[in-house]
Amino acid sequence: MVIPLVAYSLIIPTLILVQRIISRYSLKYLSRYLPLLFSLIILSIHLKQVLLLFFLITFIIFYSLDDKKLNFLPKNTSLVLAFLLMALIVAKTLQENMTSFIYPLGFSYFIFRLIHYVVEKRRNNLPDHNVFDLLSYLLFFPTFLAGPLERFPEHFKDLAKIQTHKNNFSPDEFFYGVGRILIGVIKKFFGANTLANFIYPVLNAPQIHKPYLIFLSVLGLSWQLYWDFSGYSDMAIGLSRCLGFKVRENFHWPFFKHNLAQHWRSWHISLHEWIRDYFFLPIFGTSWGRWDSAQLRIYLGTFCSMMIFHLWHGLNSNFLVMGVYHGLALTLWTLIQEKKRKSSFLKKLFPVKSGYLNNIFYGVLTYFYVSFGFIFFFFPLNHGLKIFSQLVGWIWKMY
Q1: Dihedral sign, Cα of residue 188, residue 194, residue 197, residue 203
Q2: Is the four-CA dihedral 266, 268, 270, 274 of positive or negative sign?
């Protein structure tokens, strides 16, 4: 969904102004569901063909989990989760050849939010709410397309504050939101887009460029993706703050971390936490019974979590390679952390408290490794392998 910047620069301030006016005059129920109305206005511009589908899925899920309503619907939570997972897998499998009518943008985030909702509903961890509160959460337009993946209780808490006017207009909050939006715009339109103009011509035709230019361009790929993605997150967080919602952070200086584990805990944080809470812990965080091995669970869970993390972007060979590439490396890192408790050599090689130079060395090594992996995020597999092999061959000759 490409945002028409000029149109939205007029629409969004108008919506914020309307919300503040309504909140000022204590129209509590209208102010509570005004964010939902805003979302419908914005999303209808892009998703008018399938907005009804989102409504239908939401109503079916909501009432299928309510024992007191619509008794003709199945009340089995496992069936609901199976349906959501199957819908996501089928959609991702066919994504490459599907039109936006069949595979609407934001569908993956929509399904992941619903899975979170269904699981927490089964655990009785959700406050009392109605279907319009759920719609407001699922269709919240600042985070609908590219996250962050916020949780329903957080969204509901802010909705309740809007209704009870406990978050009356705060100039500090508003200007903080505007500042985050401006940071996001600078990252996306001046940082990522400008950098792309330099690196893509080199990487699209690596055979006619010198190896060091290819190497620098690959390092630039990671920054281009970071500025692009984190720029969208900044705009989403800022716009949400202007509307009275505090959305969780999604990035925390990922390229300044000293190992892969720290990096992936700082990159797309909300997705990482979602996979931890709804995949890793339920499956690999509990005993498997008679043949249980805690170490095996951790290693296998780490690898599978990275596979899910990357295949979530698309079920194709590129993301499969990225999942294996990072999954094996992160599993190896986890194994080293376990083994170095008994190995003095590993303790010296990977000290718990590293010095300044050690941190720089491992930080650069981590950054290089991650940047090489991003080749497969941007380019077809064959082309990516060609770039990757050229770089590895060039570095090998240097040493």
Answers
A1: negative
A2: negative
Cβ-based neighbour number of residue 318 at 10 Å = 18
Q: Establish how many alpha carbons lie within 13 A of residue 102's alpha carbon, considering only the half-sphere containing its beta carbon.
A: 11
Q: For the chain, how big is the Rg over CA atoms in Å?
A: 23
Mean pLDDT by 10 residues, the chain (399 residues): 47 62 56 73 69 81 69 65 86 65 72 92 88 88 86 89 64 85 91 92 87 90 94 90 88 92 94 94 82 83 94 88 94 85 68 72 92 91 87 75
- Helix (H), strand (E), coil (C) string for 296-357: HHHHHHHHHHHHHHHHCCCCCHHHHHHHHHHHHHHHHHHHHHHHCCCCHHHHHHCCCCCCHH
Residue 92: closest CA among 110, 107, 113: 107
For 38, other C-beta atoms within 10 Å of its C-beta total 23
Amino acid at site 387: I
Rounded Cα–Cα distance for residues 241 and 181 (Å): 10
**What is d(CA 148, CA 146) in angstroms, rounded to the nearest whole number?**
6
Quick one: pLDDT at residue 273?
Answer: 94
Give the 3-state secondary structure of residue 267.
strand
User: Using CB atoms within 10 A of its CB, is residue 306 exposed (0-12), middle (13-18) or buried (19+)?
Assistant: buried
Most distant CA pair in the chain: distance in Å?
Answer: 72
Read off φ and ψ for residue 60, nearest 5 degrees: -65, -45
Give every CB contact of residue 220 below 8 A, 6+ residues apart in sequence.
195, 198, 199
Query: Which of 172, 301, 339 lies closest to 242, judged by CA?
Result: 172
Single pTM value for the model = 0.86
N-term to C-term CA, the chain: 45
**Residue 269 near residue 249 (C-beta atoms within 8 A):** yes
What single-letter DSSP state applies at residue 266? S
Cα distances (Å, whole numbers) of residue 196 to 41, 199, 378:
32, 5, 11
CA 170 to chain centre: 28
